[in-house]
Specification:
Elements (H helix, E strand, L loop, with lengths): L13 H18 L1 E5 H18 L4 H10 L2 H14 L8 E9 L6 E7 L2
Antiparallel strand pairs: 1-3, 2-3
């Protein structure tokens, strides 16, 4: 039974799904803007926002938590750059913009997931 299990599976097994989320998170943090499907963006957006909110505490526990979730380069960028950029913002660090074109292979709705400046 799936009581209280939220989230999307994206037709992937658990390991593949977590790897996909980590890769998309790393790319979003490093490039600050990625083009992906609507389903993947809706899965990555809350994950990134929680990491930035946690990093805004600016203590050792927050840094170690972020390091455990993403790579060292991405964690340093979140902790030292993005957390300071969004210090006065209460939330909503990411934005999802719908793109007009759909993907030709499977007609998936494409979006642009970006960090708010």
């Amino acid at each position: 039974m799936r009581h209280s299990n939220t989230g999307k599976k994206l037709h992937r097994e658990t390991g593949q799904r977590t790897a996909l989320v980590k890769i998309l998170t790393h790319n979003l943090i490093m490039k600050e803007s990625i083009k992906t499907t609507k389903a993947k963006a809706s899965m990555v957006k809350p994950y990134v926002e929680r990491l930035i909110t946690r990093a805004k505490k600016q203590d050792l526990v927050a840094l170690r938590h972020v390091l455990s979730k993403v790579s060292e380069k991405a964690a340093n960028k979140i902790y030292y750059d993005l957390a300071k950029r969004y210090m006065d913002r209460q939330g909503g660090y990411t934005r999802v913009l719908k793109l007009e074109k759909v993907r030709l292979k499977d007609a998936s709705k494409m979006v642009l997931l970006e960090l708010v400046k």
